[in-house]
Each structure stands twice: as structure tokens, then as C-alpha cells.
Amino acid sequence: MNRRSCKPALMNGKKIDDLIVQQLLELADWAPTHAHTEPWRFIVFANDKVQQFCKDHAELYKANTTAEKFETSKYEKLLHNADNCSHIIVAYMKRGTNPKITVTEEICSTAAAIQNILLAASTLNIAVLWSTGGLTYHPAMKFYFNLNNEDHILGLIYLGYSDNAPKEGKRVTALKEKIGWKK
Ligand SMILES: Cc1cc2nc3c(=O)[nH]c(=O)nc-3n(C[C@H](O)[C@H](O)[C@H](O)COP(=O)(O)O)c2cc1C
Predict the structure, then answer these.
(1) Which atom of ligand 1 lies closest to the CA of 118?
(2) pLDDT digit string (tens) for 133-167?
(3) Of 125, 179, 133, nearest in space to 153 by CA
């Protein structure tokens, strides 16, 4: 398995064709979904909207951080993190109205949709990072996207190409410690 995360700072500025991004989203749409609630939603930033979103993200950080906690380096990182990215996909769970389907299930389903994107991106040598950094979980971000209170932003997915080979994967807990076979 060679799926790996790639930091946006290691991306090279080359653009992904929008049609390929659309295909990644079509794969995302085939995530498993209990009772067909299909809760995954995506907001796709491309071209100069990528920088615009980063600028807005940095400003949201500034507006929602006290002077004592504000870090210029963090502001600059949010502002310039994606300078060499091609697209940013904001993935969120839109809470459905079926009371039998739990929030956990809706979040799992949306996370599966995100993983479909990551796996497909890897096969196409697209560099990708699922990030929950910055204000991803902050109510201000939900407000920015006009989401309902019960919706959840699950991540900012940074996409691009990289000249660097994917870094070697690291797992700190042995697989055998994560599995209990009964036979
Ligand atoms: C829910 C979630 C949130 C993550 N948020 C961040 C993040 O904010 N910043 C970051 O650098 N990586 C983030 N990652 C990526 C992990 O750092 C990365 O998956 C981990 O280092 C393992 O590397 P690998 O994906 O190459 O196996 C996140 C991953 C997940 C699943």
C-alpha cells in the first residue's frame, strides 16, 4: 500500500485537470452509506479561489483569536500553506433527517468518501493531504460556509503534484497488536 500524505508545502504548483478532480469526487460518491443518507458534501476551490480561501482562512484565524494567543507564524502558514496546491476540497458531513441514522454513521460515511479520494489520488500520483488544521473545526468556519449547526466539517483536502517521492510510511503500533483473530 503506497497511499501517503504529502504536505502542501511539498507540492510543486502544477495544476490537476478539473476533470480529474471531478473523477475523484465521483469515486467519493461511492462511499458506503447507511439508508442512503449520502451525507458527504464537497466545496471545491480551484484556480485563484484556492488563494482566496487561504486568505479568508487566515483572516478567520485572526478574527477568532485573542491578541495573546495570536501567532504571526500561524497566520502566515494559513495564508501561504497552499501556494503550490492545485485544488482544495472542503469535505463536510451534512446531517440528514433520518433519525435512525446516527451522527457517528454519517461521519463514518463521509470519512469513507474522503478516503476514496485519497486512495484514488495515490493511484494517479496526485499528492494529497487530509488536514484538520487551522479553523477546520471552529464554528467560524461553519459560519463561513453557511452550514447548519449539526453539520461537521471533516477536513480540508489539499491536492496537487509533488516532485518529491512520497515519504516512507510509518506505523508506530504493529498491525498484529491491532488485530484479534478468533478461529
Ligand atoms: C482526520 C485527519 C486529520 C489530519 N489532519 C492533519 C493536519 O491537520 N495536518 C497534517 O499535517 N496532517 C494531518 N493529517 C495527516 C496525518 O498527519 C497523516 O495521515 C499521518 O502523518 C500519517 O501519514 P500517512 O497518511 O502518509 O500514512 C490528518 C489525517 C487525518 C486522518
Answers:
(1) 25
(2) 999 999 999 999 999 999 999 999 999 999 998 88
(3) 133
Domain boundaries, the chain: 8-178
Classify domain 8-178 at the CATH superfamily level. Answer: NADH Oxidase (3.40.109.10)
Ramachandran region, residue 4 (left: φ > 0; alpha: ψ -120 to 50; beta: rest): beta
* CB of 94 closer than 6 angstroms to any ligand 1 atom: no
Distances (CA, A) of 68 to 57, 71, 135, 171, 179: 19, 8, 17, 36, 45
Residue with the smallest CA separation from ligand 1 atom 6 is 131
Q: Work out the angle at residue 168's Cα, subtended by the Cα atoms of residues 22 and 46, and round it to the nearest 5 degrees.
A: 25
Question: Rounded to whole angstroms, how far apart are CA atoms 87 and 19?
Answer: 12
User: What are the tens digits of pLDDT across the range 71-125?
Assistant: 999 999 999 999 999 999 999 999 999 999 999 999 999 999 999 999 999 999 9
